[in-house]
Amino acid sequence: MKEEEEDEAEIQESEKMLHEEPFDLDELLPVIGEFGRYQKLLLWLICLPACIPCGFCAFNQLFMTDVPEEYWCRVPELENYTAEERKAYSIPLVLHDGVESYSKCSRYAVDWKEILNYSDDLDGPLAPNSSWPTEPCLDGWEYNTTVVQSSIVIDFNLVCDYDIYPTLGLVALNTGGPVGVYLFGLLNDRLGRRISYFSCLATLLIGSFSRVIVGLTIPAVYQIPFIIALELVGPNYRSFVTVMTCTFYTFGIMMLAGVTYLIRDWVQLTLYTSVPFLLYFLYLLVMPESPRWLLMKGKLEEALLILEKMANVNGKQLPDSFRRRLQQRVLAEKNRTTKRTEPTIGAFDLCKTPNMRLKTILITLNWFANETVYLGLSYYGPSLGENQYLSFFLSSLVEIPSYIICWIIMDRWGRRWPMCLLMILSGISCIVTVVLSEDAVTETLILYLLSKSMISASFLIIYPFAGELYPTQVRGVGIGTSSYIGGLGLIVIPFITYLGKDNLRLPLVIMGCVSVLGGFTGLRLPETLHHRLPQTLEEGELFGQDWTFDECFRCIPSKKSPTSSYENLSHDPSDAALELNAAVPINAGTFATGSGSCSTERTPLELARIRRQSMKRLVRQASTMDTQKTKDGAMQLTYWF
Predict the structure, then answer these.
(1) C-alpha span between 434 and 384 (Å, rounded)
(2) Distance from C-alpha of 490 to C-alpha of 459, rounded to nearest angstrom
(3) Staple 90 to which of 75, 244, 252, 503, CB 3.0 to 4.6 Å?
(4) Contact in structure between 526 and 415 (CB atoms under 8 Å)
(5) Residues 133-139: what's their mean pLDDT?
(6) Global confidence as pTM
(7) Interatomic CA distance for residues 171 and 182, integer angstroms
(8) How far is CA 10 from each of CA 16, 21, 328, 330, 345, rounded to the nearest angstrom?
(9) What is the reported pLDDT for 262?
(10) In what helix (H) or strand (E) does residue 261 lie, and over which residues does it extend?
(11) What residue spans of 157-274 are helical by DSSP H?
(12) What average pLDDT does this structure show over 184-211?
């Protein structure tokens, strides 16, 4: 009987603990190290290098489908002549941009055996006649392989009437992205981060010859290690991890430019940009599972082993009180028979009220513009300049300083004006190319690089800006909705870049107009810097409702109060004392209250909990780029590229 009473008391205590404020892993990380040696080794040696395959496999197709600058119809009867003679005899001259050149898709439709015999009888050279009828290239094409030595286009004759197929390959790649994020997202949540990442990597490598299969893994193969890194570092370092992840992704694309310059055979290029990543399966020996995911699944012992290892490597100690708290919560979950059901909030709830509906439309439009123009300019880089490999390298290189600069100005000038100004200037840089002459190759490339740099910075801003505009209650749903709809631009953009085969600057003008339009519409969004961010849909409807046209001309947001750069999550005025206490420094083992000279010895875990509780009511509004989270704190995949 006594044992039953003790068990019942333990269950009641566990239930009581469960109804208290959740014990989040973020409360423990300051104690065992938010960004200690363990996280640094994991980040620099595993998570960041694990992002490189995404850029390699997303852009290697641009060089696998290289189109030689010069090609013409093949005439089998003239194979004994030189290339220049074959063109002069069999290919009609056409005007292209005011310049006379050999046709690429037609040839003279004559009986060459009869003409050759007639020429032999005359004992003179062949003399083509411009009045001869013409016909399509029925016997294939010949290619000048001086620069482009091998490509899918050459091997499969994907020119003239078939030149749309490489574009369809890019469309297939980008169509697979949303499907892959959903599938690998389910795998990520059900089987864990490790299994999900290596399954994604295996799918990528095995299906590297198929654009659809490769598309299924992008951007999931990039985001899963990113999520692992985010879940293992403290909140104060997640912005740094995000910037470094973007930077390593860019480094990967820059490395791809070097690989494509050295490897000119498309089959070898496919192997060189996929087979080396088989070595990544060695990460199976060292890559840990996310302790957040393990705790979410109730695998307490496995999570504790990882956290103990993290603490030991960081030179810290895992507090026993943390173990007991987790054990109690797991026990309470197992004994709970009834669970409180919460109303499900979906994407349609974002559009029920006018202000939230307008903000959702504008956020989605800006996401579409940023994503479409960024990827479109990335695809278009090799088409500009005199050296496609150098142009592609430079188009990646300019992203890195833009990340650093925009991260500095975001917390000084806010989010709205930097994003909108960068989008408008990026678009203008593209549109201005239309007034340049055809010979202004270098000038066009410079304007393109300026545009790429600015849209990269703008694209970096849209994610945290959207996260701050959407209320906490619907943040995950809002970001997911905007990113998925914005991702539709990735399906359209290959067709826009395809237009450049006839007019090199037309795609730049189209992308420039999209960027400018997005930039001007973004000015209607309210600024979030120095404002208390909305928590519920009701607060989201009120946030920015008093917007006036004058705000479009306010470049630097004004601070509302001395503490206006902080988000006060508590609506109770009685919490002011706690906020004041949060500003009082906490010395080793002593908690100083604001009401007197009371000093009480605290354990490190208790100090961390005090700081955490204070910060939950007084959270600095800084630039952060978290991904979606479940109610258990585990992070989810979001479709953004």
Answers:
(1) 14
(2) 14
(3) 75
(4) no
(5) 90
(6) 0.79
(7) 18
(8) 10, 18, 8, 12, 35
(9) 92
(10) helix 238-262
(11) 165-190, 193-206, 211-216, 220-232, 238-262, 266-272
(12) 86
Distances in whole angstroms, Cα of residue 259 to Cα of each of 151, 301, 390, 561: 15, 45, 12, 54
Q: What is the pLDDT of residues 274-313, one digit of tens each?
A: 889 999 999 989 888 888 888 777 788 888 888 889 989 9
- DSSP-assigned letter for residue 623: -
- Give the 3-state secondary structure of residue 101: strand
Q: Could you tell me the two tokens for 279?
A: 């070595």
Provide the residue type at 517 as one letter: L
Q: Distance between CA atoms of 380 and 377, rounded to whole angstroms?
A: 5
How many Cβ atoms are within 10 Å of 335's Cβ, its own excluded? 14
Instruction: Indicate the range of 120-129, 220-229, 499-508, 550-559 predicted with least confidence.
Output: 120-129
Cα–Cα distance, 272 to 249 (Å, whole number)? 18
Closest CA to 465 of 516, 529, 406, 402: 529
Q: Which amino acid is at 77?
A: E
Task: Name the residue with higher pLDDT: 236 or 335.
Answer: 236
Q: Rounded to whole angstroms, how far apart are CA atoms 18 and 106?
A: 77
One of 1.20.1250.20, 3.20.20.70, 3.40.50.970, 1.10.443.10 is the CATH number of 346-556, namely: 1.20.1250.20
User: Out of 1.20.1250.20, 2.30.250.10, 2.30.30.100, 3.30.70.330, which CATH number does the structure's domain 33-68+149-288 have?
Assistant: 1.20.1250.20
Specify the pLDDT at position 502.
81
